[in-house]
Amino acid sequence: MNQVTLDSVFNLCDANFAGNRPMPPLNQVIGDLIRAGMTNPPHTHQDLVTAAAMWRVGPKGAGPPPNSIVVGLEGLIGGLAPWYKGFVNQIEDCTIAYGCGAGRAVNAGGPPWEDIWPDAVVQLAKRMMPAVKECNLWLKTFPGFPKRQKDALKSDARLLAMMLINPTGKPFAKTPITISCLPDETSITDGTKTIVIPAGARHVLEVTAGATITVPGRAPRTLHPGTKVVVLARDDQTWITAAGIPRITLANGQAATLDVPPQNLVSFQCGCGRVQCSTEHRISGWSPAMGITLNAFLATAVKGPNRPLKTGSFVQGMYFSMLSKEGF
Fold it and tell me: How far does the chain reach from its first CA to its final CA, in angstroms?
């Protein structure tokens, strides 16, 4: 991208729109740039749209992005099918995803342009709202599911967006951990932190070093590095499944110990337990080269892989995992 274009777009947008909330639509921003005469060389249409999209969802007050960020975003945009190049919505898709970490390494806590861009997260959550609303309308057809207010749905969309961006939760401070079967729930604890899993919900862990699962009176089971451990809470049982070992079933009052070296246990936000979670439920799993829009990718992540909504598909999505952990 021409540096003159980048600087000119940021200067004009700062003068015209700085402090506006909500942020004006991208087409409105581009219209102002065109009316200001930014249609002639050295400016190109794609550079104009890309720079405007970066100003709109990038970190406010940080000035134009460094060249490394621009080059990275242009690389992601380069994956668009030829007939999509230059289209405002597609470039905006790429910019939002890139701001949320797709196609780049995020420097958490570093310079603003290298970290996650807060306004990109806001836009990602907005893109997830239609799927969240559709799911709630469908769920209301089931007896006992409550009518939920708009603010609750917005909160759901924000949480889902954060799960897409940061798939892992706060790690356990120490090991081993204890998995206990309790009436109507299962608990996972290291003695300082406890995760409670309501009946019907799952929680997914991953061991990054060799580990063992032990239940009193039973032979210990060995887990290899990289093994995912899925803990499913049932009304009166807990099921622990992992590749390479038989399913472990705990009855009420029973507990299992997962022993793994410190700092080698990952706890995931999404509890779907699917192999495809690492690609379908992470913003890093989307690329325009896939041939699907960002909105379509997000809808599948929220609702599951099939349309129309069906129970067998919905339980494979992120939203079922989130709602079941909240006790719905």
Answer: 48
218-274: per-residue pLDDT in tens?
999 999 999 999 999 999 999 999 999 999 999 999 999 999 998 899 898 888 877
d(CA 106, CA 113): 9
Q: How far is CA 86 from CA 17, 103, 265, in A?
A: 23, 19, 44
Angle at 138 between CA 136 and CA 144, to 5 degrees: 75
Q: Which residues contact 103 (CB under 8 A, 6 or more apart)?
A: 72, 73, 75, 76, 97, 284, 287
Each residue's pLDDT tens digit, 62-95: 999 999 999 999 999 887 766 555 578 889 999 9
Distance of alpha carbon 208 from alpha carbon 172, whole angstroms:
13
Three-state DSSP string of 29-56: HHHHHHHCCCCCCCCCHHHHHHHHHHHH
Phi-psi region of 37 (alpha: psi -120 to 50; beta: other; left: phi over 0): left
Query: Taking the complete model, does pTM exceed 0.90, yes or no?
Result: no
Contact by Cβ (8 Å): 190, 264: no
